[in-house]
Design brief:
The complex is a heterodimer of chains A (about 725) and B (about 150).
Chain A lengths: L19 H4 L9 H9 L8 H6 L6 E3 L5 E5 L8 H13 L6 E5 L4 H4 L14 H5 L2 H21 L7 E3 L2 E3 L5 E3 H9 L47 E7 L6 E6 L1 H5 L4 E6 L3 E6 L2 H10 L1 E5 L8 H11 L5 E6 L2 H7 L2 E9 L11 E7 L2 E6 L4 H12 L6 E5 L13 H10 L6 E4 L2 H6 L7 E9 L5 E10 L2 H6 L24 E8 L13 H20 L4 H7 L5 H14 L9 E10 L2 E12 L3 E12 L6 H21 L4 E2 L2 E2 L18 E5 L17 H13 L14 E2 L1
Parallel strand pairs in A: 2-3, 7-17, 15-16, 19-20, 23-26, 23-27
Antiparallel strand pairs in A: 1-2, 4-5, 5-6, 7-10, 8-11, 9-10, 12-20, 13-18, 14-15, 14-17, 18-19, 21-22, 22-23, 24-25
Chain B lengths: L1 E5 L2 E5 L7 H8 L18 E4 L2 E4 L5 H4 L3 E3 L8 H12 L9 H14 L5 H8 L9 H12 L2
Parallel strand pairs in B: 1-5
Antiparallel strand pairs in B: 1-2, 3-4, 3-5
Helix pairs in contact in B: 3-4, 3-6, 4-5
Classes of the chains: A alpha+beta (about 725), B alpha+beta (about 150).
Chain lengths: ~725, ~150
């Protein structure tokens, strides 16, 4: 036991520095010509040294070495969404190199170079990556091509316009050929032109055509290395038990001698709210944690439970809150309405539960702190680690890693801070691996929400307008430290304040209601996912109330939304909306226009017995503008649809005695192959600006499911998940 | 000391009897292609072959392996069906985050070795023990079917 002293209170559960980097409000130009031209000077830098070199200000996005190999430095982390292949395609397209000549390196934390202006920080999330990268990354490739051509033209004493680039070479007017690798040094000395024209879509060779992802070959043979697979010299495995009650702290540990006697076990480290064991292997860590007698101070939230949380949120949802949106006169509309329809929708806490649990390799040594971890927010992780160690930020080196699933979870750095807090007590590097139980019970959860809608209807039972109250925790406030001055969580009111339907009046209120100590965070689909469940359920209720086909009803209310209408019509055609279904079966539809993309999803299901649901068909159509890699877009839509269904069918996190009750997948069931048929998707061909796809597919799924259930059974479920009411899949 | 036959090689390991094979593979032998996901045989990311059968290595004590042959994802390409499945996985661009795919592939190969012409029902039945949080099931089915029909 090298050190069991109590650490200062740096690791109380919501971390030290939530969103500190975001608060600094960095907004930088998306295009960085000086950085790109500098990148050529770094042509000889070996890829292994990239992190250090880029920290010194060399590379930004593109580096060409003397062999002609192109390294794209990705400001976005790969977590399955295919973004790094997309970014490589953007660069390769303009640089005129085959994709096989391109590899990816992870960008180090560097807000100056890699902040995403859509998120004001170096984050991966919110389906912003393609939208952000579309111009700067193509320009990075094009800028490099231009100076390479100029270098060749100078060498051959011809005009640049007489030369062209092809397959990693510059071709001259008289048959001259020079490989990029031979031109790098000369090109690096040339100034980048102020104006960098981009190829028109019609000239694309790579973009828009299905491409094999760069990361997938390693994912079929076990070679892909995630954080959990890493090893650094002298590293030991670490694992923790954190106080099961949120807000509780560690009082003491006994039986340490027995734990330390387990073969392989090295140290026991006490943290403020957790105990860590290090050992040569994870199994020994777990055995040691089991034999330790841990004395917790369970803290002030030990009586918190879901019934109480549900009740207080439900009561709060009737309150006034703050106005998030007002157009028209909803009070008058409701007063003068021919009739009204009111409904209340409830959504639960959700866990992210990526299959790779929270894991971080950390080494705190005399010279600083080094981290190897898959993070969606590397800058926040780096700054927080520096604070814990009392180091300047530049003494923390973070090597970002391939991620085995995130869904928003790795925007949080709590587990990274825990790893750093353990490592600073030890002389050797550790790989902290959370057990599944730790991962599920100490997640930062998608909050629960109550949505109240009240529509004013005209004589034809069409909405003149509606009032929409949303009550729930603020993820924006949790992440940024506070709400904007208007008191509105801008994420939570998405879709509600901007529905696809034309309404003469609309009023949206946000009632902030925090679940005491339960940590909350971003979850795939974010605000639009929760908003779409409420609005798309409600519009379906209005359609049935009017005895109008829900597809027709929607289409008639969204005449200013041609792209949303188009995906709805295509989905209807794909499933055969107009063909009848047998008794006991039904189809439900939902549509969304978020993240710059348009999605329509239709679920067809058959009710079996009282609560059995057989999902017969799933159709989803997306218009995400120009689809740079149609295969990736289709994959995201297929997976996203099932991801959304999984939560809507089965998932809710419940609290008893201040503790999360779901500990592993036997209690937090995920959709399996047997639960749903293949997803039939269609990607609309378009030349519109690219929209987001990672979050998007999940968004309409839940509403389409409950709408299908209503169509099949006449039962309207307004609370998720369906398993709560005894529904099961057959 | 215990002798294990892993990917055709005899490996001598000094581990407690109750240590699951998963951690012997990952933390003792450095074979990290086999993943940890739940530790209670609920997710299937730890799937390996024991004498050709798909098993969950997270709940299989090393001592219970005895002299049976263990195959992991690292060696699956040495089998024709393994190679065919890996190729199909790439042709259908199955993987997203990829973390579960070692386990998915091990289950798929075991299925097709036992049932070379596996139909939809057999595929669903053999694969439903393997979770994929990216929910790549649509492409997993298609990839297996393409090999099964071959």
């Amino acid at each position: 036991m090298s050190d069991t002293q109590r650490s200062p209170a740096v690791l109380s559960r919501r971390g030290v520095l939530k969103g500190g980097a975001l608060l600094s409000g960095l907004v930088i130009s998306t295009f960085l010509p000086p950085a790109i031209s500098r990148s050529f000077a770094a042509g000889t830098v070996k890829r292994a040294q990239l992190g250090d070199a880029a920290e010194k200000g060399y590379g930004a996005f593109v580096r060409v070495d003397h062999s002609g190999h192109v390294t794209v430095i990705s400001p976005k982390i790969e977590m399955g969404q295919g973004i790094q292949t997309g970014i490589a395609m953007m660069v390769a397209e303009e640089l005129e190199v085959p994709l096989s000549q391109v590899s990816i390196a992870e960008a180090p934390p560097n807000e100056q170079l890699y902040a995403d202006p859509l998120l004001h920080s170096q984050l991966t999330g919110g389906s912003t990556s393609t939208r952000y990268a579309w111009e700067p990354l193509r320009k990075a490739g094009a800028g490099a091509r231009i100076v390479l051509i100029e270098a060749a033209a100078l060498r051959w004493q011809v005009a640049p316009s007489q030369c062209r680039a092809l397959n990693g070479q510059v071709l001259g007017p008289d048959g001259q050929v020079a490989a990029y690798g031979d031109l790098v040094d000369a090109a690096a000395a040339l100034p980048l032109p102020a104006d960098i024209p981009l190829k028109p879509i019609a000239e694309f060779k790579l973009l828009g055509k299905p491409a094999q992802r760069l990361d997938t070959p390693h994912k079929v043979n076990g070679n892909a290395k995630y954080t959990i697979d890493l090893s650094v010299p002298d590293m030991l495995i670490a694992s923790t038990i954190t106080c099961p009650v949120h807000g509780g702290t560690l009082r003491g540990v006994s039986n340490e001698a027995v734990a330390l006697g387990i073969p392989g076990v090295r140290d026991i480290v006490r943290l403020d709210n957790a105990v860590a064991v290090t050992a040569s292997n994870f199994w020994a860590c777990q055995q040691a944690l089991k034999v330790l007698a841990i004395d917790w101070d369970l803290g002030p939230h030990v009586s918190l439970d879901s019934r109480q949380l549900d009740k207080s949120l439900f009561e709060a949802s009737a309150g006034e809150g703050v106005f998030a949106h007002q157009s028209g006169d909803i009070a008058a509309a409701l007063k003068n309405a021919s009739s009204r329809l009111e409904a209340i929708y409830e959504q639960p806490f959700l866990s992210h539960s990526p299959l790779e649990p929270m894991t971080c390799v950390a080494h705190v040594h005399a010279g600083g702190c080094e981290l190897w971890v898959g993070s969606q927010a590397p800058g926040i992780a780096q700054a927080g680690a520096a604070k814990i160690c009392g180091l300047p930020v530049d003494k923390v080196v973070l090597h970002n890693q391939l991620i085995g699933g995130a869904f928003g979870r790795r925007l949080e750095s709590d587990f990274i801070f825990q790893a750093v807090d353990i490592a600073r007590h030890l002389s050797y590097p550790i790989k902290l691996i959370w057990s599944r139980e730790e991962d599920m019970t100490h997640d930062c959860y998608r909050p629960q929400y109550v949505d109240r809608l009240n529509a004013a209807l005209d004589e034809d039972l069409r909405p003149v307008g509606w009032e929409h109250r949303i009550a729930g925790a603020s993820v924006v406030a949790a992440y940024l430290g506070s709400l904007p001055p208007d008191g509105v969580d801008f994420d939570v009111v998405e879709v509600a304040k901007d529905p696809v339907y034309s309404l003469a009046s609309l009023q949206v209120r946000y009632i902030r209601h925090e679940p005491e100590v339960i940590p909350v965070s971003w979850w795939r689909g974010v605000g639009p996912l929760r908003g779409t469940f409420a609005v798309e359920s409600f519009i379906d209720e209005l359609a049935h109330n009017a005895k109008v086909d829900p597809m027709e009803y929607r289409l008639s209310l969204m005449q200013s939304q041609p792209r949303a209408q188009a995906v709805l019509r295509q989905a209807a055609e794909l499933i055969g909306w107009d063909t009848p279904v047998p008794a006991g079966s039904g189809r439900g539809v939902a549509v969304s226009a978020v993240f710059g993309s348009f999605v329509a999803t239709i679920v067809e299901l058959e009710a079996q017995g009282k609560k059995g649901l057989r999902i017969k068909r799933l159709v989803s159509v997306i218009d995400c503008g120009f689809a740079h890699n149609p295969t990736s877009v289709a994959s995201q839509l297929e997976g996203g649809t099932l991801f959304g269904l999984s939560a809507a069918l089965f998932n809710e996190i419940l609290i008893e005695h201040g503790q999360v009750q779901q500990t592993n997948f036997h209690q937090y069931r995920q959709i399996r192959m047997s639960d749903a048929p293949p997803v039939e998707v269609h990607v609309v061909s378009s030349e519109e600006r690219p929209g987001g796809v990672g979050e998007t597919g999940a968004v309409p799924a839940a509403a389409a499911l409950v709408n299908a259930l209503f169509a099949a059974t006449g039962v309207r479920e307004r609370r998720l998940p369906l398993s709560r009411f005894g529904y099961f899949t057959v | 000391m215990q002798n294990l036959m892993i990917n055709g090689q005899e490996r001598e390991v000094d581990v407690p009897d109750d240590m699951p094979l998963l951690w012997v593979l990952r933390d003792v032998l450095g074979l990290t292609g086999t993943k940890y996901g739940c530790g209670i045989a609920q997710c299937g990311v730890c799937t390996v072959h024991l004498d050709g059968q798909a098993v969950r290595s997270c709940v299989l004590p090393a001592s219970a392996v005895a002299s049976r042959k263990v195959t992991t994802i690292e060696a699956i390409s040495e089998q024709p069906v393994g190679q065919a499945i890996q190729k199909a996985w790439l042709e259908h661009e199955v993987a997203q985050c990829g973390y579960c795919q070692s386990g998915q592939i091990m289950s798929a190969v075991a299925l097709l070795q036992a049932h070379p012409h596996a139909d939809d029902e057999q595929i669903v039945s053999a694969m439903s023990g393997n979770l994929c949080r990216c929910a790549t099931y649509t492409r997993i089915r298609a990839a297996i079917k393409s090999v099964s029909q071959a």
